[in-house]
Design a protein that fits this description.
131 residues, alpha+beta, Nucleoside Triphosphate Pyrophosphohydrolase, eight-stranded mixed beta sheet, 20% helix, 36% strand, EC 3.6.1.55
């Protein structure tokens, strides 16, 4: 049995809005939207990975707030776990630095106006349900 690799996703919330990131790479994902995040490195806690990934991908300082219920399957051997997150006071505004070409703060009535990656839809549903 292949050991699962955890990918963390961040549901960054501010003023009731959810931050969405549009993929620019790889080509098969380009133009679709996701919750920012990435792989947990060996020896790293998931919450630490979340903070690191947000710093690398968006240039922000953030904190994990709470784990979103569920575990969302990706292609083998990856699995997505999502946390709500908040930007720390004094953090710069998010910028699309790696693998993204656009960011949007989506109010609740616009969350479904973007084309989410298939694997993020269930996670976004859980986030919206819990907000």
């Amino acid at each position: 049995m292949t050991e699962r690799i955890v990918v963390v996703g961040a549901a960054v919330l501010r003023d009731g809005c959810l931050l969405a990131a549009r993929r620019s790479a790889p080509a098969e994902l380009a133009g679709r939207w996701e919750l920012p995040g990435g792989k947990v490195e060996p020896g790293e806690e998931a919450e630490e990975a979340l903070v690191r990934e947000l710093r690398e991908e968006l240039g922000v300082e953030a904190a994990a707030v709470r784990r979103v219920p569920g575990e969302f399957p990706l292609r083998e051997p990856y699995v997505l776990r999502v946390w709500t997150a908040r930007l720390l006071e004094g953090s710069p505004e998010p910028k699309p630095l790696q693998d993204h070409d656009e960011l949007r703060w989506l109010p609740p009535d616009e969350v479904w106006d973007v084309e989410w990656l298939d694997q993020d839809v269930a996670a976004v549903l859980e986030v919206v349900r819990g907000v």
